[in-house]
Amino acid sequence: MTDEITHRDASFKWQLAGLLGKCVIDLIFAASRMEVEGEDDIRPLLSSRRFIAAIWHSRILGISYRYQGWNGLALVSRSEDGEIIAQTLRRQGHKAVRGSTSRGGLRALSRLIKLLRQSSRPTIVIPDGPRGPRFRVQPGIILLAAKTGYPILPLTYSARRIKVFASWDRFILPTPFNRWRITYGTPLHVPANADPDTLERCRIRLETELNHITRKTDGRFGHVIL
């Protein structure tokens, strides 16, 4: 009985964290002015909903707000931070698939591949999560693209006024009544029959593009986040 109560209390705690997370994100971004860069070039891809959004761990908030209600899939780690992210994403209208490069990664990737073959849904992958190295793409997202045929869409955001945390990922938190910008990068297509060298070249290309658009977007607001 005690274990049941403890489990129920823990479940309630995480659900409350997800609700609070969504409310905070809504407050920040709904009360701010959004700018978009690079969207015109990829509108057909967005309309198809057949893409894998690649987002650095520190830049998840703005992107999840922008696409809430899209019924997307998100690969989220099994860590406590991941539980908060998963609960928040569920409140935003997405489905979280739990796993990472360090815990349950292959099983989570297999499940994602199966779900994407069943229906066309956008997918969010955080390629430097859950513990880094920061701004370094892990190979799982490249394998997912090769197996599903979905192109990878690099995405990032920044804002004029932000709090930069002293965490491994240098997580950013914008303030309300702000100006923020989403930037789309060049989509990356990974061949289904790619050999290891090609997969590694794709990994490097994605990492380079994500870092490029992140530095560019931060630079719009005078930020240099090292």
Helix content: 40-55%
Please give the domain count: 1
The portion of residues forming beta strands comes to 15-25%
Low-confidence stretches: 1-9
β-strand number = 9
Shape: globular
Spatial arrangement of strands, main beta sheet = 1-9-6-2-5-3-4
CATH architectural designation: 3-Layer(aba) Sandwich
End-to-end Cα distance, whole Å, is: 49 Å
Write down the CATH class. Answer: Alpha Beta
Radius of gyration: 17 Å
CATH topology: Glycerol-3-phosphate (1)-acyltransferase
User: Biggest sheet, open or closed, and with what strands and sense?
Assistant: 7 strands, mixed
| Secondary structure category | alpha/beta
- Give the overall average pLDDT: 89
Q: Total helix count?
A: 7
Q: What can you see in these coordinates?
A:
- This protein is α/β, with parallel strands linked by helices.
- It has one domain (2-220): Glycerol-3-phosphate (1)-acyltransferase (3-Layer(aba) Sandwich).
- The chain is 45% helix and 18% strand.
- It contains seven helices and nine strands.
- It has helices spanning 2-30, 43-48, 60-66, 80-91, 105-118, 140-148, 196-220; strands at residues 33-37, 52-55, 73-76, 95-98, 123-125, 152-159, 162-164, 172-174, 179-184.
- The strands form two sheets. A seven-stranded mixed β-sheet has the order 1-9-6-2-5-3-4, with helices on both faces.
- Strand 3, helix 4 and strand 4 form a beta-alpha-beta unit.
- Helix 1 crosses helix 4 (80-91) and helix 5 (105-118) packs parallel to helix 6.
How would you briefly describe this protein structure?
With 226 residues, this protein is of the alpha/beta class. The protein has a single domain, classed as Glycerol-3-phosphate (1)-acyltransferase.
